[in-house]
Amino acid sequence: MRWLKLEEKEIIVDILTVANAISRAGKELLNDVLEKYNISFVEYYMLRHLEKNPGETQYNLLKYTMLTKSRANQIVSKLEKMGYLEKKTEMVGSLLKKPLYLTESGKKIVVEGVDDIYENTIKNLSEEEKFKYELYRSKMVEILMNMRLTLGTMTPEYLKK
User: Fold this and answer.
1) Cα dihedral 109, 114, 115, 119 in deg (nearest 10)
2) pLDDT tens, 63-91?
3) Cα–Cα distance between 26 and 132 in angstroms, integer?
4) d(C-alpha 103, C-alpha 133), whole Å
């Protein structure tokens, strides 16, 4: 087995550090929306995931997050009580499924969050910077997809595009 040099091993730590900084910046950019609707960053992420994947089940949500089953249940219950998502009951063959869908209020929150982030970031980039950003984003998604497979979680399809 080939042993990596220390510098090569540190690359992943550097990538995770940058990803963490970007995550913190994202939380800051979303802060107004999070406060306005009394939700957390994780809850916003769940709404965003459901906006891109309507009809996703709670069980499948666990594959895309690092949440425990009980924490996912708490978040879904809270968002359902707040009127941001709804759980429908469907029979698929002989199985009873309860897919999740955003309500109009839930969709509004996601759009406001995306708009806030766009207004404070991408909108202000030059065309060259936007191109470099897309290259970086694509590479990060590829790296994170490989890491998530190792960790047992999946990368949402919409990020792969």
Assistant:
1) 140
2) 777 788 999 999 999 999 999 999 998 88
3) 19
4) 32
